[in-house]
User: Fold this.
Amino acid sequence: MNKQEIAEMLRNAVLTQTPITQVSRNEKVFSLTDAKEVQAMGLQLALEAGEALCGYKMGLTSKAKQKDVNVFEPIQGYLLRSFEIPKAGVVKMNTRIHPRVEPEVAVVLKKDLRGPGVTLRDVVNALEGIYPALEIVDSRYENFIFKLEDVVADNTSASGFMVGRVNLLAELNSLNLMGILVRKNGRIVETGAPAAVLGDPLLSVMYLANSLAEESKSIPAGVVVLTGGITQSVSFEMGDRIEVEWPQEVLSFTAE
Ligand code: 0L1
Ligand code: MG
Assistant:
């Protein structure tokens, strides 16, 4: 298969909620460069279908997430406007395959960040806000089994996200050690703190800005940046109620 066909196969898996075999099992040569090109082609297909780009995500930035899926390098993907879940919302199961949820830190910038050479100080100076968030991942591969190249081609399993209302910028100094709980049907299933994300989630933004610079892109002001799952992801099914509790805000949804 050529790269365009792989991008179309992945988009079809999203649209039909039908999982596929990981690309690297069928393709003799499928490099990380190929995978990035497939991801970009997938974005182009979505834009042509009327979708809108609204941000970026980093993935696999915590040890918990890396162990979760057995891939040990940070990765990046894009967010579409249609991924956004209204607060106190509903996550539709009939548009997904086998979704999981993870708590994240979301960042919004007040000015563009353009690499190379972006530093942590540059990120701090560009901050408009830091928000409690959650991400829904939904691998298009059977049983969530993939290699690095596969998951990059699959836009890092991105499927949904929710961003809170409370801006934590004034509490930046204590952000890393804020306690976060994930509850499923009232029972605590994961606990963590933002420091799990590369030691500081703002490093994830720095990494993203410098990595986008390799494609002559910047992080534009105003877009959402998800910095990566803080804990292992939690699977959920129809009827489940998920709550991600921060000291300042609870994000929640029901799977319907
Ligand atoms: O942290 C992430 O968003 C990584 C997504 C890719 C791995 C997964 O599907 O969980
Ligand atoms: Mg994530």
Notes: The longest strand covers residues 127-137.
